[in-house]
Amino acid sequence: MSSLFTRIIDGELPGRFVHSDDKAVAFLSIQPLTAGHTLVVPRAEVDEWTDLDPALAAHVMTVAHTVGKALKLAYGCARVGVVVAGFEIPHTHVHVFPTETMADFDFIRATPMSDEDLEANRKRIVEALRRAV
């Protein structure tokens, strides 16, 4: 059975994408730590990031880096956080999110966001990606 992320990548489930290429995608988390929380996901369905081919792992981190620069530009945050946890969905994903303090890294604080707010954040990030390139 396909992972939740594969179903989003394949268009079976909705996703608010800010990046897509032949190896990886980036879309907003529906339960963000902070506004702009983006997941960078390889198209290949690999459970643990340490099992990724090194070239694909490097590409995923390059996309995360690009998204991180856009988040910094879009939100004017103190830092951009990056977490690779891997417990929620058995498909490698990198959490990239604007942050002001270490408290922003607490996944217990993640809260659902309305469709309207998610779409506004998606547009904000896409515009920042255009400016950052």
TrEMBL record:
<feature type="domain" description="HIT">
    <location>
        <begin position="4"/>
        <end position="107"/>
    </location>
</feature>
<protein>
    <submittedName>
        <fullName>Hypothetical HIT-like (Histidine triad) protein</fullName>
    </submittedName>
</protein>
<dbReference type="InterPro" id="IPR011146">
    <property type="entry name" value="HIT-like"/>
</dbReference>
<dbReference type="InterPro" id="IPR036265">
    <property type="entry name" value="HIT-like_sf"/>
</dbReference>
<feature type="short sequence motif" description="Histidine triad motif">
    <location>
        <begin position="91"/>
        <end position="95"/>
    </location>
</feature>
<dbReference type="InterPro" id="IPR001310">
    <property type="entry name" value="Histidine_triad_HIT"/>
</dbReference>
<dbReference type="Pfam" id="PF01230">
    <property type="entry name" value="HIT"/>
</dbReference>
